[in-house]
Amino acid sequence: MVEQRTSIAAADPYLLFGLLGKRVIHPGGRKATEQLFGQAELSASHEVLDIGCGVGTTAVEIARRFGSRVVAADISVDMRERAAARAHKEELGSRVSVEAADICALPFADGRFDRVVAEAVTMFVDRDLAIRELVRVCRPGGLVLATEFQWRRPPTPEARQAFLGEVCPGMLFDTVEDWLARYRRAGLAELQVTTGPFEMMTPGGFLADEGLTNSIRVMSRAMSNPVARRRMFWLMPRISRAVPFLGYVLIRGQKPAAG
Ligand SMILES: C[S@@+](CC[C@H](N)C(=O)[O-])C[C@H]1O[C@@H](n2cnc3c(N)ncnc32)[C@H](O)[C@@H]1O
Fold first, then answer.
1. pTM (2 d.p.)
2. Picking from 84-88, 108-112, 186-190, 196-200, which range would have the lowest pLDDT averaged per residue?
């Protein structure tokens, strides 16, 4: 089956940023990924799954910095193409395998991976089903690390509607306590949480994630394409309305050892 490419006009906001060349597409940005690395105890002997890998930034970084083998998987062909190109460019094609996968029905054996990473993915689907899949493919004693959105304080009805009703319709998330309960129910133990503000789309966060050169490149692409420009002018005020209430939560849990 030939998979359809998505146009700038039809892409959801995350894919839109991916198509425009943004490299970090999750609420805590590079800061949250560094926190994840600090808690993941990664090594060269590990096989890691990065599900919902987007353009492959985290997957490539894991292979480059820690020497692990990484399966970078995503449901979107556009994202997978960018992830594969990035792995190739960084000459990490032998350690990063880019594969098609749906987080709700992972095509991997039980217990295959030493580490399972999901940055900003479960929120788009049936969260409990997706989290059960993350735990299923993790080996006993291995770690699951996930970044999710959370409401840092109760949003106003306008902020909630702007973000979940208009910017990301269908996306679901709640509080840190709610996330913890879901990951605990899926069988993870020794749960740890790290939280922070949503800075991905603030000027400072954007610059910190992308650096000056890529920030300019992404914004010029957005401004020089009439469809992208129109979409950005629609998106930005709605995202800004929600930013004061939004945050990220990084959850780390261990799958209990067998027996
Ligand atoms: C918010 S982006 C995060 C991308 C990447 N993890 C990052 O942090 O930069 C969400 C990603 O999840 C992918 N995705 C959405 N639904 C999925 C599913 N059912 N299975 C696998 N990936 C999915 C999207 O294609 C997208 O790449």
1. 0.95
2. 196-200
Q: Are 117 and 70 in contact (CB under 8 A)?
A: no
Rounded Cα gap, residues 115 and 185, in angstroms = 19
- What is the side-by-side strand order in the sheet with 47-51? 96-100, 69-74, 47-51, 113-119, 138-151, 246-254, 189-197
Q: Check pLDDT > 90 for residue 1.
A: no
Look at residue 92 and give its three-state secondary structure: coil
Instruction: Tell me how far the alpha carbon of residue 245 lies from the centroid of ligand 1, in angstroms.
Output: 22
| CA proximity to 255, closest of 123, 129, 113, 107 | 113
Given ligand 1 and candidates 4, 14, 78, 117, which is best to mutate, with the most ligand atoms within 8 Å of its CB? 14
- Model confidence band, residue 90 (pLDDT cutoffs 50, 70, 90): very high
The CATH superfamily holding the domain 13-151+172-198+246-252 is Vaccinia Virus protein VP39 (3.40.50.150)
Give the tens place of pLDDT for each residue, 13-59.
999 999 999 999 998 999 999 999 999 999 999 999 999 999 999 99
150-171 per-position pLDDT tens digit: 999 999 999 999 999 999 988 8
Q: Select from 124, 199, 206 the residue to mutate for testing ligand 1; criterion: most ligand atoms less than 8 Å from CB.
A: 124
Domain boundaries, the chain: 13-151+172-198+246-252
The encoded tokens of residue 150 equal 């959370």
